[in-house]
Design a protein that fits this description.
heterodimer; A: alpha/beta; 6-stranded mixed beta sheet; 4-stranded antiparallel beta sheet; globular; B: 315 residues; mainly beta; 10-stranded mixed beta sheet; 9-stranded mixed beta sheet; 19 strands
Chain lengths: 245, 315
């Protein structure tokens, strides 16, 4: 489905190599967790996959459904069925949630707006006509972002830390929501997360460490490698931690 | 039937800018329609007087809402010209008498304009404790060939409320110059909003809205929203003067500028001559944020479609 081959990224406003020689694969219908500490290059990889300006790989290639998309625009990638939900979604002045979600539906099926809102636990009759602006809470805006990417019915959605900044009570709902999205849409998900509870949903995982892939495998293996890389011996709360506490 | 009242191109543009054309055309809807210099439909209701006189190039018209009359349904006005060139002059007078209330939805449509001039000199008078909402939506066609010069002089009586919205957000602009002067007396309230989208190098917008708070405790807000893309040129000036005790005013200008050779200028001017009055202002001009563009492009919109959507939201 998605394959990164030896991708190196130097952001446009920097001379520093942020991501170096990164390769990994996301399979069809797979939830693939991309984990790593702050600054390890997770979001840069997401932006490069989506084709955002300033994140074009200096070396390497990105393949999506057997097509080299390295030089395609954001719009072209989206139309191939690839999309991204931002960690901190923007708010749009004067645009309703319904209009925002509908922007990603190109076959004109308005019913999908309602279905997508329902899927992320937002009452369509209340939210479709609300503005996607600063009146929404952070949690509501994240749900709207999820609804917008789900409504596109993409082959692959990149979710950049969908669990960040959420109230702890909302975590369970988020996990249920992601499970429902996977069950009902079959879309593959590249899931960027810091949280073990979220990563537990993943079928596979990749650990980025200082811009490089340190480990790929199942989530437990990757978390064990993560704990070892950190070298933390005390108060490690990971259930996968192989280190003696 | 509807073709006789207004040409299809004008009705279609009305639909495009969001008017309910079926309601406009209903026989019992209060209305005054002008096709170039021909008055094609007039429908009065009790307490509403609509009187017009055709001129060589347009019309003089009186719209009078008599004392105490509260018209619940919107009154539809339409000033349209279908030919590509020519001159249309409209001289309307709106009189909203004491304690009267009315809402006017006006459509100015020049759907094929290539070298067409439309001038309007409007006078608006509100008596005491009256309420008048006037919205004007324009459509100037796809060729940037309209030259549109409306002026409004508005007198808002004590305790009255006047709200006006001007919008030109579909199609091209051409050349647009608007002058609005509103004089607010004791306790009067005014809100003036203008929204314009200039999207080509042939689109030039000049809007000068002035609110003069002359009476005690009068208040006024000017909101100017504009976008200049593709080489468009927009200048919006909002003037508020507070010349009486307790007067309160605010000017808010927000503009988007996008693309080479586009220009957007915002000039809020505030003047206070009474130390018990207060006027504030804010102005912002800038390009669409890259993250907003990226977000919509990641949904499959092209960059131009994304800019359009963001600008229309802002407007």
């Amino acid at each position: 489905m998605l394959r990164l081959k030896k991708v190196t990224i130097v952001p446009a406003n920097s001379s520093e190599v942020i991501v170096n020689d990164v390769s990994f694969t996301v399979r069809e219908r797979e939830i693939h967790a991309l984990v790593g500490p702050n600054g390890s290059g997770k979001s840069s990889v997401a932006y490069a996959i989506m084709g955002l300006s300033g994140y074009h790989p200096r070396q390497g290639h990105i393949y999506f459904r057997d097509q080299d998309i390295t030089d395609l625009s954001v719009t072209e990638r989206a139309r191939l069925g690839l999309t991204l939900a931002w960690q901190e979604p923007v708010r749009f002045e004067g645009i309703t949630i319904g209009e925002y979600i509908k922007a990603g539906i190109h076959d004109g099926d308005g019913q999908r707006v309602q279905e997508a809102l329902a899927l992320v636990g937002l009452a369509p009759d209340q939210y479709a006509t609300r503005k996607a602006d600063a009146s929404l809470s952070g949690g509501e805006r994240k749900r709207v972002e999820l609804a917008a990417v789900v409504a596109m019915r993409p082959w692959l959605m990149i979710l950049d830390e969908p669990d960040s900044g959420l109230d702890i009570i909302v975590y369970d709902e988020l996990h249920e929501m992601l499970a429902r999205i996977r069950r009902e849409t079959g879309t593959a998900i590249l899931l960027i997360t810091h949280r073990e509870e979220t990563g537990d949903m993943a079928d596979a995982a990749t650990l980025l460490w200082k811009g490089q892939v340190l480990k790929s495998g199942n989530f437990a293996e990757v978390m064990q490698a993560y704990c070892q890389a950190i070298g933390r011996r005390e108060r490690c709360r990971s259930k996968y931690c192989p280190m003696p506490s | 039937m509807s073709q006789q009242i207004l040409p299809y191109a004008i009705l279609e543009s009305a639909r495009q800018v969001g008017f309910d054309v079926e309601t406009m055309l209903q026989p019992d809807t209060p209305k005054f329609f002008l096709n170039f210099n021909r008055i094609t439909a007039v429908k009065e209701v009790p307490g509403l007087i609509l009187a017009g006189r055709e001129l060589e190039n347009g019309v003089m018209a009186d719209v009078i809402v008599t004392r105490g009359t509260k018209i619940k349904r919107p009154i539809h006005l339409c000033f349209g010209v279908v030919p590509e060139d020519g001159v249309q002059e409209v001289v309307p007078r709106f009189i909203i008498e004491d304690e009267a209330e009315a809402l006017i939805l006006a459509h100015c449509s020049f759907p094929r304009a290539r070298n067409l001039t439309h001038r309007m000199e409007a006078q608006v008078m509100l008596g005491r404790d009256a309420l008048f909402f006037y919205e004007e939506r324009h459509y100037h066609g796809p060729y940037s060939g309209a030259h549109v010069y409306p002026t409004f002089e508005v007198d808002v009586g004590p305790g009255s409320r006047f709200e006006t919205v001007f919008s030109l957000t579909h199609g091209t602009v051409g050349d647009l110059v608007i002058f609005l002067d509103v004089y607010a007396h004791e306790g009067a309230k005014v809100e003036a909003v203008a929204k314009v989208y200039g999207r080509s190098e042939k689109d030039r917008v000049r809007i000068r809205d002035g609110v003069f708070l002359e009476g005690r405790d009068a208040s006024g807000v000017i909101r100017l929203r504009a976008a200049a893309t593709g080489g468009g040129d927009v200048l919006m000036m909002g003037i508020t003067e507070a010349n009486a005790p307790g007067a309160r005013g605010h000017v808010d200008c927000k503009e988007i500028v996008q693309g080479a050779h586009s220009t957007a200028r915002a000039i809020p001017i505030v003047r206070v001559t009474d130390d018990r009055a207060r006027v504030t202002h804010e102005a912002a001009v800038g390009r669409v944020s890259q993250k907003e563009l990226d977000t919509l492009m990641a949904r499959g919109l092209t960059e131009q479609e994304a800019v359009d959507m963001i600008v229309k939201g802002m407007l």
